[in-house]
Amino acid sequence: MSSSPARPSVDRDTLVAYVNEFLAADQGSDYCPNGLQVEGRAEISKIVSGVSACEELFRAARQSEADAVLVHHGLFWQGDPPTLTGVQYRRVAELIRSEINLLAYHLPLDRHLEVGNNAVAAVRLGLTDLQPFCQHQGLPLGVRGRLPEPRPRAAVLRALTELFGHEPLTFSFGSESISSIGIVSGAGARYFHKAIQHSLDLFVTGEAEEWVMNLAREAGANFVAAGHHATERLGIQALGDHLRRKFGIDVEFVDIPNPV
To answer: Quick one: 115 and 215 in the same domain?
Structure first.
C-alpha cells in the first residue's frame, strides 16, 4: 500500500520572515505586536485565516488540522491586562494545546497597496489613480482614487453593500454623482475630516462615531460605515491567497460573523 504524498509545507520562521518583509511589518508604530504572537509547530502546511483572533476561530483551526492561524486583529493590545487569565488564558491555551502558531498583522495589512484592506476594496470597486490616503505616525493607512466615469450615488452604495456583504450605515448629504472615493477600513471615522478637505465625493470606513452625521450634513458630504469586520475581511483573504500561491500551502478563510 502506497503512502499518501506529503502536503507542501513551509518552515515557520521562513514564512514569518517573508510576511514581515512583504508587509513591511517593522515600519511605524502600532497598537499591537505584528508578526508571530504565539509559537506553534515548526512546519506549516495549512493556515486558517480570519479577521479577529478568538476562541471560536482557534477551535475551527484545530478541527481543520491547521498549523497556523493568520489574522488582522491579534490577541495582544496596548492597555489590555498583561496576564494570561480568564478569556485570554483559554484563547492561548487552545493554541498551545494544538501547537498552532498565531500570526497577526494590523496596520501593515491596512496600508499595503497590493493585499491591504483598502487597496483591495478600491480595486474591487474599480477605482483608478490610487494614492495613499490619511496617515498614522507618518505612514499612510488608506487609499483614495477615482471611478473611470461618475456613477450615481445609489449605484455606488449598492456596489459597496455587495462588496462587503454588509448593509452599510450611510449619511448622504453630498453629491449624488460619485467620482472620487477615499477608503480607510475599520475604525477610520476620524479621517472623515481629511476626505472633506480633499473634496472627495464619498468616504468609506468601517464604523461611525457620534459626531459624524452632523459633520456630514453641515459639510455637505457623503459618509459610509460599511462595518469594521466587513471592511477588513478583504485584506486577510488576499494575503492568504498570496501565501497559497507563494508557498503552495493550503489556506482556508474562516469567517466568524460579526455585525460591528
So the answer is: yes
CA distances from 251 to 17, 143, 212, 243, 244 (A): 18, 27, 38, 8, 6
**CATH number (domain holding residue 142):** 3.40.1390.30
> Structure pTM?
0.95
> pLDDT per residue over 123-154, tens digit each?
999 999 999 999 988 899 999 999 999 999 99
Residues 156 and 211 in one domain: yes
Cα–Cα distance, 114 to 124 (Å, whole number): 12
Closest C-alpha among 236, 242, 123 to residue 186: 236
Collect all residues with Cβ–Cβ distance below 8 Å to 73 and sequence separation of at least 6.
Answer: 51, 52, 53, 104, 106, 232
pLDDT digits (tens, 9 = 90+) for 62-106: 999 999 999 999 999 999 999 999 999 999 999 999 999 999 999
Q: Which amino acid is at 115?
A: V
Strand order of the β-sheet with 139-152 is 128-136, 139-152, 177-184, 202-205, 222-225, 169-172
* Closest alpha carbon to 151 in 120, 170, 128, 175: 175
